[in-house]
Amino acid sequence: MPQISFKNINITFKQKDKTLEAVKDVSLDINKGDIYGIVGYSGAGKSTLVRVINRLQVPTKGQVIVENKDIGKIKGRQLRELRHKVGFIFQHFNLMNSRTIADNVYYPMFNTDTKNRHARVQKLLNLVGLTGKENAYPAQLSGGQKQRVAIARALANNPSILVSDEATSALDPKTTQEILQLLKKINRELGVTIVLITHEMEVVKSLCNKVAVMNAGKVVEKNNILEIFSNPQNKLTKDFINTTNNSTNAIETLSKQAKFKELAHARRLFQLTYLGESAEHPFIIDLYNKFNLSASIIYGNIEFIQGTPLGNLIVAIEGQLQSIDAVKKYLLDNQISLKEINFENINVK
Ligand SMILES: Nc1ncnc2c1ncn2[C@@H]1O[C@H](COP(=O)(O)OP(=O)(O)OP(=O)(O)O)[C@@H](O)[C@H]1O
Ligand SMILES: [Mg+2]
């Protein structure tokens, strides 16, 4: 059973003379322990969608199941319990500026006596790396530290789900990485499921195990992270991946160089993408041995996604390339994908 299940969710907002469909027929399953990314441009419906998890937003249509409960049917005490199960963090931290750090974390605590509350605040501040800041005020902290307070506060009631809505968007890249590492630690050590909204694919790549891409209220693609990065289907997914992938930049840079224009006329250029164990396959030599083709590497990038290597190479191929289909099939049998690059239009066909 998934921990969170969105079933055919529609959310419409009625304005004076028109209705706005913010979320359109979204179905998603999020399992316990997932760090599930929801990525999309501004206005895609990400925040509206996740607000249904604790009924901050009621869906116009559809069903939301959280930990086996149809949350459209609960109220009163059960609804309060659900709300304690789900912690939220946001881009702008939303701290209470007139209260100390300890009080900010303390504030939402429910059902805890004063003595235990104090110990719990200490434990949470320790977890987020802010021991010693109990008596400071939010204005005395950096953005990264403020977000750490917000995370401690979101964890105050031991939630099983943490929703992070653009929590790193206001932070610099180094601080972003530190906060992402903290979220990873919370996921691993406390077993908290994380739903992570972002418009940055880089964030998804470094943290999530699954991702859904949203556009204009719809989920246009969803998959595990390796599949998404190695074999994206939707145009928008490809655009998002290109923002984290240097090969597009490399193609653009190369296309401006006269030397490579010549090369592109003389030879055919291909982009090879491979994943995991296929990285061990000596395919450059195979191209020569099996097809009498010599491939020179013009650009190469190998990165690790969830511990698995994902390689991107741009190669120029020389030789009698009679049947590209046979080469393609051979490579595909070894889990290597091959796409021809048209340098004239800087397009990967
Ligand atoms: N309470 C509301 N009333 C009317 N329209 C709303 C309301 N909340 C959201 N919307 C509209 O729904 C659409 C989706 O908004 P949402 O905030 O979910 O987008 P988002 O993907 O989170 O965007 P961003 O990345 O900018 O945060 C937008 O067109 C927004 O204007
Ligand atoms: Mg939003």
TrEMBL record:
The keyword Translocase applies. It comes from Apilactobacillus ozensis DSM 23829 = JCM 17196. Gene3D superfamilies: 3.30.70.260, P-loop containing nucleotide triphosphate hydrolases (3.40.50.300). Keywords: Amino-acid transport, ATP-binding, Cell membrane, Membrane, Nucleotide-binding, Translocase, Transport. One of its GO terms (biological process) is amino acid transport. GO terms for molecular function: ATP binding; ATP hydrolysis activity. This is ABC-type metal ion transport system, ATPase component. Belongs to the ABC transporter superfamily. SUPFAM superfamilies: ACT-like, P-loop containing nucleoside triphosphate hydrolases. Part of the ABC transporter FtsEX involved in cellular division. Has ATPase activity. Essential for cell division and viability. It catalyses: ATP + H2O = ADP + phosphate + H(+). InterPro entries: AAA+_ATPase, ABC_transporter-like_ATP-bd, ABC_transporter-like_CS, ACT-like_dom_sf, MetN_ABC, MetN_ABC_transporter-like, NIL_domain, P-loop_NTPase. Residues 6-241 form the ABC transporter domain. One of its GO terms (cellular component) is plasma membrane.
